[in-house]
Amino acid sequence: MSQEPIDSPTGWVAKHVKSYVESGGTQGHLYHGAPTLLITTTGRRSGLPRRTALIYGRDGDRYLVVASNGGAEDHPLWFHNLLAQPRIGVQVGAEVFDAVARPADAGERPRLWETMTEIWPHYSGYQQKAPREIPVVIIERA
């Protein structure tokens, strides 16, 4: 991704991402006690890099994130972007690397969902109000 990413445009997420990037990952890694990372996807329509902050978990060497969108009816835009282009950029603290992301399949999701709801229990409430199954995304280094 050769261009500077466009950060998430909304309120607290934009502030979180700005703090994370400007501090080189020393600020913003924890959000209300939960670990966060930054992903940079490629906009499926614009082709521009898009960056957002997400709570993450681990499954061995893999990172896990949840496409909750707060339990909204639709998947978040970043999820649609990574479905169209699964190669993403990742920042975890000060470490920056390229990765490939994919939704967990039906056999993987229950265990990984449990991992993520232990980290951020609000996901359970989001799933209860969402009219869709909320995806768990697996991120692996490229």
From TrEMBL:
It comes from the Bacteria. It catalyses: oxidized coenzyme F420-(gamma-L-Glu)(n) + a quinol + H(+) = reduced coenzyme F420-(gamma-L-Glu)(n) + a quinone. Gene3D superfamilies: Electron Transport, Fmn-binding Protein, Chain A. GO terms for molecular function: coenzyme F420 binding; oxidoreductase activity. GO terms for cellular component: plasma membrane. InterPro entries: F420H2_quin_Rdtase, Split_barrel_FMN-bd. Belongs to the F420H(2)-dependent quinone reductase family. This is Nitroreductase family deazaflavin-dependent oxidoreductase.
